């Protein structure tokens, strides 16, 4: 080892993959000693979950591993990180395997017992290549948080890459829990606006009477509780991207105000007589079919066309089952996990259960299941029976905020109509809504006032 090597290796990220923990520990100590930043994984699945966050300059993996061998891991890495150098180590090295590995893009091939000088030499050469590819890697940073092996998702990301270069408004359609905000963030990161702010707002989570103030801002004294001037989210997102999630739940009255703001590229804070110019790209999303809603008169057609210059459709988790094991292992080893769980992975049978399961809550539900199973696990490898138990628990399908809000609204309407004997005028007055709005609420929940005649106590 020369004096120049520590400087050359200083803080370069290396990922070591081997199911032999003793060898893993030994190599880790030796490589850290020359200034490398080292992370370890005991399986190919764990390695795949670490790569997006750790972003190693090199991956060094054993060839022979039980769950996934080094060549399989290499192929999977190359799908999303084609320029990442990979060095394969094996005690079973042959000329045939070396040729196969080289033909498939593996950078180096070393046999056991490992000559540490030879390994350092290969690392040095691989780092030189990795440095030359750094600019290419930077281009891919916009999608670093999106884990996938799915062709459907890769097609979607190709569209994201292309559409993000313009400045047109984009609409993301997908079921709850599919990752609409993650795609919106990727659009922003890949766009010329990436140095500006990314602001996300869930339109369904903000009461209708506060939404205008939240988005456009307000002036002091404009309404009860307005104790000072406040900048709206349009202004906060100036020069960047504003993500409007669940846009389909926006009231018709506010749709008119939003349309005007988009057309004029100006917002008028509540209580102000002056409009403020804003430079914002709009990305919106909904689990509703907005085109259908617009055709049925439940969403303004002119606003729909303003928002929907192009649509990106997110596949359900069941349409990308090849991603389930990848995501599950990512969630179980994620460094930002709230608790230090003992669980580090899943048994093959447990993964099979996860892959076969129907996921109405999509990726969000999968994450909840992994978190639940991790909390209950008493061994590093989560067994199939524990996964089966968690999948059967009601908590694994815990409602999201939108679903809970809808259920509460329906139950409220049922109780209200029952208490007034189905009298719509009286019910609307108690609910502080006009009759037209109240009838729309009933239609939304498929309720008929006549059903409640004679039910008051």
Characterise the protein shown here.
The protein is of the alpha/beta class and 457 residues long. It folds into four domains: 4-139, Response regulator (Rossmann fold, 3-Layer(aba) Sandwich); 151-313, Rossmann fold, CATH 3.40.50; 317-397, Helicase, Ruva Protein, domain 3; 403-452. The chain has helices at residues 4-9, 21-33, 44-54, 70-80, 95-103, 116-132, 134-139, 151-163, 180-190, 208-216, 233-236, 252-264, 290-295, 301-307, 324-333, 348-356, 362-376, 384-392, 401-419, 424-430, 435-444; strands at 13-17, 37-41, 58-62, 86-90, 108-111, 170-173, 198-202, 217-218, 230-231, 241-245, 266-267, 276-277, 281-286, 310-313, 345-346, 381-382. The strands form five sheets. It has a five-stranded parallel β-sheet, with helices on both faces. Strands 7-10-13-6-14 form a five-stranded parallel β-sheet. It has a two-stranded antiparallel sheet with strand order 8-9. The protein is elongated, with a radius of gyration of 27 Å. The N and C termini lie far apart (89 Å). The model is unreliable at 1-7 and 135-139 (pLDDT under 50).
Average pLDDT level:
84
Low-confidence stretches: 1-7, 135-139
Structural class: alpha/beta
CATH topology term of the largest domain: Rossmann fold
How many distinct domains?
4
* Helix content, binned percent: 40-55%
Name the CATH class of the largest domain: Alpha Beta
């Amino acid at each position: 080892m020369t004096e120049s090597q520590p400087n050359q290796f200083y803080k370069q990220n290396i990922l070591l993959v081997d199911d032999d923990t003793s060898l893993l520990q030994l190599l880790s100590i030796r490589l850290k000693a020359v200034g490398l930043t080292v992370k370890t994984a005991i399986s190919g699945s764990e390695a795949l979950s670490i790569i997006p966050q750790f972003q190693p300059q090199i991956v060094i993996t054993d060839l022979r591993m039980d769950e996934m061998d080094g060549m399989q891991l290499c192929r999977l890495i190359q799908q999303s990180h084609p320029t990442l150098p990979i060095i394969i180590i094996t005690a079973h090295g042959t000329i045939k395997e070396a040729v196969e590995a080289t033909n498939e893009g593996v950078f180096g091939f070393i046999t056991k017992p490992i000559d540490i000088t030879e390994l350092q030499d290969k690392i040095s050469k691989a780092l030189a290549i990795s440095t030359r590819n750094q600019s290419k890697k930077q281009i891919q940073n916009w999608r670093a948080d999106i884990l996938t092996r799915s062709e459907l998702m890769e097609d979607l990301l190709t569209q994201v890459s292309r559409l993000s270069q313009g400045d047109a408004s984009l609409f993301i359609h997908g079921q709850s829990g599919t990752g609409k905000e993650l795609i919106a963030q990727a659009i922003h990161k890949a766009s010329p606006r990436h140095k500006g702010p990314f602001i996300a707002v869930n339109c369904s989570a903000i009461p209708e009477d506060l939404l205008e103030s939240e988005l456009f801002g307000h002036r002091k004294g404009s309404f009860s509780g307005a104790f000072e001037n406040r900048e709206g989210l349009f202004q906060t997102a100036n020069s960047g991207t504003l993500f409007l999630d669940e846009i389909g739940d926006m009231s018709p009255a506010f749709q008119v105000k939003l349309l005007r703001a988009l057309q004029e590229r100006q917002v008028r804070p509540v209580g102000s007589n002056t409009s403020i110019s804003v430079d914002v790209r709009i990305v919106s999303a909904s689990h509703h079919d907005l085109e259908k809603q617009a055709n049925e008169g439940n969403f303004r057609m002119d606003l729909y066309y303003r928002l929907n210059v192009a649509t990106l459709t997110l596949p359900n988790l069941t349409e990308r089952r090849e991603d389930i094991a990848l995501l599950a292992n990512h969630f179980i080893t994620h460094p930002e996990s709230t608790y230090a769980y003992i669980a580090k992975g899943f048994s093959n049978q447990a993964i099979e259960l996860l892959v076969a399961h129907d996921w109405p809550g999509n990726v969000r539900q999968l994450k909840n299941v992994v978190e639940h199973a991790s909390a209950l696990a008493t061994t590093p490898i989560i067994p199939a029976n524990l996964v089966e138990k968690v999948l059967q628990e009601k908590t694994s399908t815990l409602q999201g905020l939108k679903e809970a809000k809808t259920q509460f609204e329906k139950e409220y309407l049922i109780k209200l109509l029952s208490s007034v004997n189905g009298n719509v005028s009286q019910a609307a007055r108690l609910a502080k809504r006009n009759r037209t709005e109240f009838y729309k609420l009933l239609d939304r929940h498929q309720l008929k006032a006549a059903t409640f005649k004679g039910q008051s106590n």
